[in-house]
Design brief:
The protein has helices at 12-27, 51-71, 82-87, 89-94, 110-119, 170-174, 182-194, 223-232, 252-260, 277-283, 289-302, 321-334, 361-384; strands at residues 3-8, 31-32, 41-46, 76-81, 98-102, 125-127, 152-156, 158-159, 178-179, 199-203, 239-243, 267-269, 307-314, 338-343, 390-398, 406-410, 415-418, 428-436, 441-443. By secondary structure, the protein is an alpha/beta fold. The two termini are 44 Å apart.
């Protein structure tokens, strides 16, 4: 059977989709190739959030196709995901080497379509049509993957987005919100735990919107909180995380869940995007600066040690120096543990792309640099406070930068590197922090419970 290599761009939703496709293909007899250069099938799972991500995937495909021709190879090339959804047939027309273009509601068709192309039954396939109940089809997992022991898993609980932020193309590439049933998600999580997984991260484009139209509020609890409770009851599961939420989804029921569900990690990613109410309104975010600050305050009252991270967009159309100053002041006021900072990138067919007052690229880059430095300075001070403390980590595996050492995460989502061995993978350990680096903590080799 052929070997396949999947390269993923973008968010954790894309990572999860790629994993499901890989597991699906392996179940059919395909093997995972170690690199593009030896693969019979090369799939690029694409992102459309920023133009840079699209251009990167397009250039990668051109390079791979050129290298294959030079080497006399004829692998099957395919685009999956968001860019495939938005561009469809255009990709096959522009890049004649591309054999497969698969949209965001068609990942579960990858095996069937590749089998047809491999057998010669069909030459090229483009499928970006909507499909009913596609939200319940991403279930396959690489139960061991390249790891010796399973530790963490991602579970997709919904597809799509109804928020329609003016800068975002996701509602157009992922479609409207569609949620799985609580029973279905809990069953998948229970199966993963039976295979040894200790931590599960629930995924959705706006995960806190889960079941909003399908599952009624019960005893004051939203569908998402009901789901958290269901997953929390799984015996053997140690930790629950979720991403990516929307500040509007942080009602009192969810804030309260942090205080009464011990397995729910004290970590919250709250994408704020801007500190200016004027810009937030132009973005169609649905909350104010004051509302956002109120959410953070409530979370810290329930769990003082909670780690709070965020997303920012700088250079949104119409953003003035005063608007940017509001963003900087919000960063200082909240003191985020970390933040992803993005320069605004116009996406075709989104309202923001046609707004007046497009900010020059130079100013976007300057603001990006200033905000990044601000976030780094704030985080550095917060990370230094961990030195000398004892923290609990779930050991995930070897460190990416130094495979001779092991790495794990605290409940508040801080990465910790320490001297250990493969035998510690999947274990929960107490580690004394001796040093703090850039968004990484380092533990004393004299690990308690070792």
């Amino acid at each position: 059977m052929p070997s396949v290599f999947i390269k993923t761009y973008g968010c954790q939703m894309n990572e999860r989709d790629s994993e499901a496709v890989a597991a699906q293909l392996m179940a059919r007899g395909y093997s995972l190739a170690s690199s593009e250069g030896v693969a019979d099938v090369i799939l690029l799972n694409t992102c459309s959030v920023r133009d840079f991500a699209e251009q990167k995937a397009l250039n990668k495909m051109r390079t791979l196709a050129g290298e294959a021709r030079k080497d006399g190879r004829k692998p099957i090339f395919g685009f999956l995901g968001c860019m495939a959804q938005s561009r469809g047939q255009e990709l096959a027309d522009r890049l004649p080497d591309v054999d497969l273009v698969l949209g965001t509601q068609k990942f579960h068709r990858a095996g069937d379509y590749l089998d047809e192309i491999v057998s010669g039954a069909r030459e090229k396939i483009v499928d970006v049509a909507a499909e009913e109940n596609s939200q319940a089809t991403i279930r396959e997992h690489l139960l061991n993957g390249h790891a010796k022991k399973p530790v963490t898993a991602f579970v997709s609980i919904m597809q799509g987005c109804n928020q329609y932020c003016t800068f975002c193309i996701v509602p157009y590439t992922r479609g409207e919100e569609r949620s799985r049933s609580i029973e279905d998600v809990v069953a998948e999580c229970r199966e993963l735990v039976s295979h040894g997984f200790k931590e599960i991260t629930l995924l959705g484009q706006i995960v806190t919107s889960y079941g909003r139209r399908e599952i009624p509020v019960c005893e004051g609890k939203s569908a998402f909180v009901q789901l958290l409770e269901g997953v929390h009851e799984i015996e053997g599961l140690e930790r629950i995380r979720f991403t990516s939420p929307h500040p509007k989804g942080y009602g009192d029921d969810l804030v309260g869940a942090y205080g009464r569900l011990p397995k729910l990690c004290e970590s919250a990613h709250l994408p704020v995007q801007s500190g200016s109410d004027r810009i937030l309104k132009l973005m169609h975010r649905g909350y104010t600066r004051e509302k956002f600050l109120g959410i953070v305050k409530k979370l810290r009252l329930v769990r003082p040690e909670i780690g709070v991270t965020t997303d920012f967009i700088v250079g949104f159309p119409g953003e003035t120096d005063d608007d940017f100053a509001e963003t900087l002041s919000l960063a200082h006021e909240v003191e985020f543990d970390n933040a992803f900072v993005f320069k605004y990138s116009p996406r075709r067919d989104t309202p923001a792309a046609d707004m007046p007052g497009q900010v020059p690229q130079k100013i976007r880059e300057e603001r990006n640099h200033v905000l990044l430095q601000t976030i780094n300075d704030i985080a550095a001070a917060k990370y230094k406070k961990f030195v000398g403390q004892r923290v609990q980590i779930l050991v995930e595996g070897p460190s990416k930068k130094n495979p001779a050492r092991m790495t794990g995460r605290t409940r508040c989502n801080k990465i910790v590197v320490f001297d250990g061995g493969q035998r510690h993978r999947g274990e929960i350990l107490d580690v004394k922090i001796t040093r703090a680096g850039s968004f990484t903590l380092y533990g004393d080799p004299a690990i308690l419970n070792l």
